[in-house]
Amino acid sequence: MNHIESPISGVKLDNNFDDLEYISRVLQGETKAFEVLIEKYQLLIKKLAYNYLHHTEDVLDASQDIFVEIYKSLPRFDLSKGFLPWLYSVALNTLKKKYRKIKGHTLVIKKAQEQKREDIEKNEIHNRAQEDRMVVKEAVHKLPEKLREIIILYYYENLKVSEISEITGLSDENIKSRLFRARKKLKEDLQDMQPF
Predict the structure, then answer these.
(1) pLDDT tens profile 92-147
(2) How many helices (H) and strands (E) does the chain have?
(3) Distance CA 2, CA 14 (A)
(4) 174-181: long-range pairs with CB below 8 Å, 24+
(5) Which of 25, 150, 184, 192 counts the highest number of beta carbons within 10 A?
(6) What value does the mean pLDDT take over residues 39-52?
(7) Residue 125 lies in a domain
């Protein structure tokens, strides 16, 4: 017969010992009697916790939380009912709370990771955009002066064709023509600069 060494007065108990006897002792203030209940049900609780949470690192913590909750809830246990169904009920309620907490924590971590990934992507896009702007700016500066000044006034200073005409004394058609040639030249130059 399988025996458990009881922490209460060195009595040997078989696995079918009367739970109600030890629950009564706990309720009378004999806290050591609770250790016998822990000893008897710890594997069952750990297995339940593992099956519910699926993470071995959370099982020990959850098992301890369950036994603390069982201990605190014992005064509400109906001695006329079976202990095991009640134990499962307390264990499941505790695991549900634990799962929500872990899930919430996991979501926070996941959101933080997603935010970090997003920030990295934004930085990469920003850096790429900055590099692209630098490449474009460099290409603009290589344009012949009469094309370069039109591009600068139109794109960098955000002036309208009519305003550029007023500043340069060129006709609107002449400015549009230079913009067209400048864009074409920039497109060619930028294609040549693209790494393959």
Answers:
(1) 888 888 877 766 555 455 556 667 777 777 777 777 878 878 888 888 878 888 88
(2) 7, 2
(3) 6
(4) 175/150, 178/146, 178/147, 178/150, 179/150, 179/151, 179/154, 181/147
(5) 150
(6) 88
(7) no
Q: What is the pLDDT of residue 72?
A: 93
Structure-token match 């605190």, residue found = 72
Pull the structure tokens for residue 18.
């009367």
Total residue length of the chain: 196
Would you say residue 148 has pLDDT above 60? Answer: yes
Domain that holds residue 80: 3-109
Bigger pLDDT: 175 or 12?
175
**Does one domain contain both 105 and 147?**
no
**Model pLDDT, residue 171:** 92
Closest by Cα among 143, 168, 139, 138 to 153: 168
Residue 131: inside a domain, yes or no?
Answer: no
What single-letter DSSP state applies at residue 143?
Answer: S
Longest dimension (CA), the chain: 110
Q: What is the CATH number of the domain that holds 49?
A: 1.10.1740.10
**Distance (Å, whole) CA 83 – CA 49:** 18
Please state the domain count of the chain: 2
Structural domain includes residue 105: yes
37 burial (CB, 10 Å; 0-12 / 13-18 / 19+) is: buried
**DSSP label at 152?**
I
Look up the CATH number of the domain holding residue 187: 1.10.10.10
Cα–Cα distance between 66 and 76 in angstroms, integer? Answer: 15
Is pLDDT of 62 > 60? yes
